[in-house]
Give the backbone structure.
Amino acid sequence: MTDAPRPDDDTLTAEYALGLLEGEELLAARGREASDPSFAAAVAWWQDRLAPMLDEISPATPRAEVWRRIEEALDGAAPSAEVIDLRNRMRRWQVFGTVSAAAAAAIAVFAFTFMTLPTTPQVQPQAEAPLVASVPIADTDLRLAVTYLPDRGELLVSASGLTADGVHDHELWLVPQDDTPLLSLGVVAPGEERRVTLEPAVAAKMADGAPLLLTREPLGGKPEGVDAGPVVAEGQLKKI
Amino acid sequence: MRGRLPVKPASAAARERLKAAMARLAGGDRGALEEIYRATSAKLFGICLRILGDEKEAEDALQDVYINLWRRADRYDPGRASPIAWLATFARNRAVDRLRAGKLRQASVGEEEAAPIADASPLAEDLLIDAEREARVHQCIEKLEDEPRSAIRSAFFEGRTYADLAESSGTPLGTMKSRIRRALARLKTCLEKGE
């Protein structure tokens, strides 16, 4: 995409903070921000120093309705972010319980240990522990729930509640932690729970802490040889 | 737009109050969210409105900002910047994301909404981000050559990417990148001198 040489991190973090990047360069920078603390700190350095420019903009009072809408959106949610997160995790188990009997059994075990031992991390053999990610979809209450079962090499993606707009698809990407190119985890099926078996090369990069990104693409997913579309949501795989 | 109010003595106290509210927010205090909203929504709405240029879109963006703030209150690091700088950056980034997603939507649907004009609020408490650094970044930006300066400003305020900037100015992408990268290196040196 570029005929200029690959920039150093000083430049790249400035480009990212300003919003100059797009396509895969943007995806890669977001991934590094999520997984590389020194990169994230350099981005923050730029953001903090550029932020005063925003003082140029005159304030404007939003309509009272906006606060009411925010309250409505939060009502019914638990009083703390932590509890909301916990509730979402529990809801996810219920959703996935329907996917397959084997997965449901595995999930029930984890849900049980999670409920009874909320503060004690479970020591699980690394290869066996599922990886989960909850990817909040911008502007909505919806979350894309992603679960990876390493022993089966299976990825479960739940997009229940999402509706198709007929013009776009959303594609899920794994940002490998070794700076290699992004790997597609496939197009998300709106309103469905989809189970796929990952290629071994992709499965090998599914790791605790690896960022996931969701991009908006033309129907059918990112066309070959074209930059990825805008990032609409992001999350991170976590071992449970 | 360069004329700015002098920093009011009240703004340091306002920032401390905001910092305290952010800490309570991380503890799950709903009242803290309302306090933060009252203190900052005019500033953040101004930012969303400027970037999106549409009141409806700006309202949606603002809603999204505070809902996300509530859900991920732990994201703000009190040791980092002033809370208002962090919130303003957060709002700016969400608005830019929305702008880009919207452009795609508009391109495919081919429809554009009318953009009503919002009331400016001269009464909103003016939480300035940071008086010293404000001076610094403006001073440093002013030192850049005209072309890269205006490109950097439109990236920041209008969410324009390298590709947008190259296309609208009829400059090859590589040339645009090299030009801006040189300017960013100068900008960094200048900002560091102010540390």
Summary: Residues 77-127 of chain A have pLDDT under 50 and may be disordered. Helices of chain A lie at 9-18, 23-35, 37-50, 64-74, 81-97, 101-116, 200-203. The longest strand of chain A covers residues 211-218.
